[in-house]
Amino acid sequence: MTDLPEIAPAVTLETRPFWDATAEGRLILPRCNACSTVIWYPRLFCPSCASDDVSWVDAAGTGTVYSFTVVRKGQGPFAPAAPYVLAYVELDEGPRVMTNIVGCRPDDVTVGQRVVVTFADTGEATALYRFRPADR
Q1: For the domain that residue 42 is a member of, what is the CATH number?
Q2: Which residues of the chain have pLDDT under 50?
Q3: What is the mean pLDDT of the chain?
Q4: What pLDDT does 2 receive?
Q5: Which residues pair with 130 in a beta bridge?
Q6: Is the peptide bond before 129 cis (omega within 30 degrees of 0)?
Q7: Is residue 1 in some structural domain?
Q8: Residue 78, SS3?
Q9: Number of domains in the chain
Q10: 30 has which bridge partners?
């Protein structure tokens, strides 16, 4: 198992607060002030009620593996990292995020496993959010 590449994300006006927080080692999420929906993917309006009254809140950074696959033959810059885990993690706040599970062997990942966020610095004022088993 090789380390995953740390490719800087494309930062937009809508996502800048999120990526700025990752550089500080914090996970934040947009939440609708009108209906309390916690929103993923970051955007300036609520997909549930269409309100544009959205603010950013600190997330716990914990969740459970909802679904995952083990990529055994990566492509491009991910090829040398195979095998690695691509997963959906259901955050304790509700949304499901696509991410990688790190810090364990791919064969040790299970659905329902508790995980905690970790950040990989991209070197470009952002960090990638990934998750590791909570018991490590």
Answers
A1: 2.40.50
A2: 1
A3: 95
A4: 57
A5: 118
A6: no
A7: no
A8: helix
A9: 1
A10: 56
